[in-house]
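Sequence, please.
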C-alpha cells in the first residue's frame, strides 16, 4: 500500500513538472518578419541621424506585447555616418518608442532609429539593419 502511495506521488510530480515545462515552452515569440520589412531612408538634422525603416513584427504569444527596438549600424560607424553602432527607435520627443503588438498577430510600423551624426553624409548600404527586440511588457 505504501508503495502505491509513493508511486502515485511520483507520477503526480512528473505530471506537474511536464505540464509546467510544456506551458513555459509553448509560449510564443515576438519576431521581425524580415521579408516584409525594409530600410527606407536616412537624413541628418541638428547633428542627429534619422534612419527610417518599415518593420513588420509578429507576436505569436497569447498576450499583447509592448516592445522597444534597437539596431546595430557597425558599418555606418566605420564610414563616419554615426558615432555609435547601437541606436534606438525614438519617438518624436526623443524617448524610446514603445510598440504594441496584439496577441497572435502581426503589425507593420514606421520606425525611426536615431543616433549622433559622425560627420560623413554617406550611408553604408540600403539593407535592413540587425534589429533587436526588447520586451517591455
Amino acid at each position: 500500500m505504501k508503495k502505491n502511495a509513493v508511486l502515485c506521488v511520483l507520477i503526480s510530480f512528473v505530471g506537474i513538472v511536464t505540464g509546467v515545462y510544456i506551458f513555459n515552452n509553448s509560449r510564443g515569440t515576438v519576431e521581425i518578419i524580415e521579408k516584409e520589412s525594409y530600410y527606407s531612408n536616412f537624413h541628418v538634422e541638428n547633428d542627429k541621424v534619422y534612419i527610417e525603416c518599415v518593420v513588420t513584427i509578429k507576436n505569436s504569444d497569447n498576450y499583447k506585447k509592448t516592445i522597444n527596438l534597437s539596431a546595430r549600424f557597425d558599418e555606418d560607424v566605420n564610414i563616419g555616418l554615426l558615432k555609435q553602432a547601437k541606436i534606438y527607435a525614438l519617438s518624436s520627443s526623443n524617448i524610446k518608442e514603445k510598440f504594441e503588438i496584439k496577441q497572435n498577430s502581426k503589425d507593420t510600423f514606421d520606425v525611426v532609429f536615431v543616433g549622433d551624426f559622425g560627420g560623413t553624409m554617406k550611408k553604408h548600404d540600403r539593407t535592413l539593419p540587425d534589429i533587436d527586440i526588447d520586451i517591455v511588457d
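The CA atoms of residues 64 and 102 lie 4 Å apart.
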